[in-house]
Amino acid sequence: MLKKNVLRKNSEFSAVYNKGKSVGDRYVVLFYRLNGLPYNRTGFLASKKVGNSVVRNRAKRLMKESYRNIEGSLPEGYDFIIIARNTICGKKCAEVEKSLNSAFRRTGVKKGK
Predict the structure, then answer these.
(1) Backbone φ and ψ of 43, nearest 5°
(2) Strands 28-34 and 41-45
(3) Res. 72: pLDDT tops 70
(4) In sequence order, what are the beta bridge partners of 61?
(5) Contact of 81 with 112, CB cutoff 8 Å
(6) What are the pLDDT digits (tens) for 74-111?
(7) What whole-number distance in Å separates Cα of residue 38 and Cα of residue 76?
(8) 3-state class of 6 per DSSP?
(9) Domains along the chain?
(10) What is the pLDDT of residues 10-44, one digit of tens each?
(11) What is the pLDDT of residue 113?
């Protein structure tokens, strides 16, 4: 993931939270918003409710890998924030990817399988 493809500033996160829409699924919550750029930007979060630092980092790794696998099928020009739920603990990458895929389909951003 390139540096330009990552949400970094607090103002960028606030814009997605305040002006965007959200969809929840079993293991993740997805916030999304059009950004008017020719590429997507993404942020991954796991709060302390998910677990200790080891568990939170694993959750973020799982979400990043799942996003990387489905990234090619997404249209350009969106900001995404993907937040881990505490149910993500102990899950496999395939389960998280299925959940993330389902969330993207429910937003209307991604079509089909």
Answers:
(1) -130, 140
(2) unpaired
(3) yes
(4) none
(5) no
(6) 999 999 999 999 999 999 999 999 999 999 999 988 77
(7) 6
(8) strand
(9) 3-106 (3.30.230.10)
(10) 999 999 999 999 999 999 999 999 999 999 999 99
(11) 59
What is the DSSP track for 9-78? SHHHHHHHHHHSEEEE-SSEEEEEEE--SSS-EEEEE--TTT-SHHHHHHHHHHHHHHHHHHGGGSPSSE
Instruction: Locate 24 and state its tokens.
Output: 């929840």
Residue 79: phi and psi, rounded to 5, are -105, 130
Q: What are phi and psi of 100, to 5 degrees?
A: -65, -40
CA distances from 18 to 10, 11, 41, 71, 74 (A): 12, 10, 16, 24, 22
- Total residue count of the chain as it appears in this document: 113
Cα-flanking dihedrals φ and ψ of residue 14, to 5°? -60, -40
CA–CA gap between residue 30 and residue 22 (Å, rounded): 5
Single-letter amino acid, residue 82: I
Asked whether 108 and 78 are in contact (CB, 8 A), the reply is no
